[in-house]
């Protein structure tokens, strides 16, 4: 019965399953886990710095953001992408992807707001799309 239902589908399930690259799936999973860990470290470290030090909010935010990005780089370099590049080759490429993301974030969110979207929705759209562009940039260029 189950096989009959699969044959009745308008596409070949076996071909679809064969097209999935398990290695790429695991890499995407590692990329996602790295992103979640980075956000947790950023927010957690910011919370600690604001409560345990006399740093101004802007300085605490900058320190937490820098530390989280360093962790992000190291996790992506060694774990998510298992880069074959040297750090001198990969670090400036990684930094350029991060800076490009920040610039594009400002430009895209501003454009979407000018087109009439609420800023929260504009930011959410960028937050949903940027990880895809970042993954491709890191995989194919910065950390290959």
Automatic annotation (TrEMBL):
Every copy of the GtrA/DPMS transmembrane domain together lies at 30-142
Report membrane topology. Multi-pass membrane protein
Q: Which residues cross the membrane?
A: 31-50, 62-81, 93-115, 121-142
What is the name listed in the Swiss-Prot or TrEMBL entry for this protein? GtrA family protein
Organism (species): Devosia albogilva
* Pfam family for this entry, one: GtrA_DPMS_TM
Q: Which PANTHER family match?
A: PROPHAGE BACTOPRENOL-LINKED GLUCOSE TRANSLOCASE HOMOLOG
| Upper taxonomic lineage | Bacteria, Pseudomonadati, Pseudomonadota, Alphaproteobacteria, Hyphomicrobiales
Alphabetized, the UniProt keywords read:
Membrane, Transmembrane, Transmembrane helix
Q: Which family does it belong to?
A: Belongs to the GtrA family.
Cell compartments where the protein resides: Membrane
**Keyword Ligase attributed:** no
InterPro entries for this protein: GtrA_CellWall_Glycosyl, GtrA_DPMS_TM
């Amino acid at each position: 019965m189950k096989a009959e239902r699969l044959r009745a589908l308008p596409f070949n399930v076996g071909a679809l399953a064969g097209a999935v690259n398990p290695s790429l799936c695991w890499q995407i999973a590692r990329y996602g886990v790295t992103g979640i860990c980075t956000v947790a470290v950023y927010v957690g470290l910011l919370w600690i710095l604001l409560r345990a030090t006399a740093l101004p909010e802007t300085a605490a935010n900058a320190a937490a953001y820098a530390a989280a990005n360093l962790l992000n780089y190291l996790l992506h370099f060694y774990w998510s992408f298992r880069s074959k590049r040297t750090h001198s080759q990969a670090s400036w490429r990684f930094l350029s992807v991060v800076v490009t993301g920040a610039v594009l974030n400002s430009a895209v969110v501003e454009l979407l707001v000018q087109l009439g979207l609420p800023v929260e929705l504009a930011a959410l759209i960028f937050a949903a799309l940027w990880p895809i562009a970042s993954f491709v940039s890191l995989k194919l260029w910065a950390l290959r």
